[in-house]
Design brief:
By secondary structure, the protein is of the alpha/beta class. It is built from six helices and six strands, in the order βαβααβαβαββα. Helices cover 39% and strands 18% of the residues.
Amino acid sequence: MPQLMIVVGSVRPGRIGLPIARWVESAALAHGAFEIDVVDLAELDLPFMDEPNHPRLRSYTQQHTIDWSARVDAADAIVFVTPEYNHSFSPALKNAIDYLHTEWSHKPAGFVSYGGVSAGTRGVIALQPALVGLGVVLSQPNVEINFPGKQLNDDGEFEPTEQQASVAAALLTELAALAGVLKPLQG
């Protein structure tokens, strides 16, 4: 069974990305096509890039980079749960992506973005060229969530709309198909 990595792209205290990622995890488990690895960048706690060599060389000197490389290598598909910060992406997410190079190549990826009026789409649009430059294959369906705080229940859990759940199912189906097709091309 392919492995789906769900990346929580915000490290801010009180962030809403974690409850959204937990919803994505439960949707993926219900979908049934994947083993799941949830990566919370706050727990991963990568410092600002501290490797002396270019990531494409894979000559890592830091244990946190070696561990991060192994997790991304093990992933067959990725969902980035990402906020929009000032019309762009989270610096913690970009740092985590930039730590590695060939590990991302030929991995299918999609987005569950969130924010205000734009639902995080400007952050996704800003991030896409960097991912494509690393060889990531982007999925077509992406979940976009406007004002996600309104969808938290009293227990702090994210409750998706019917449309969000439907798009998430389509995203997972496409990622499962792409993971199978792209696996032979992955390093």
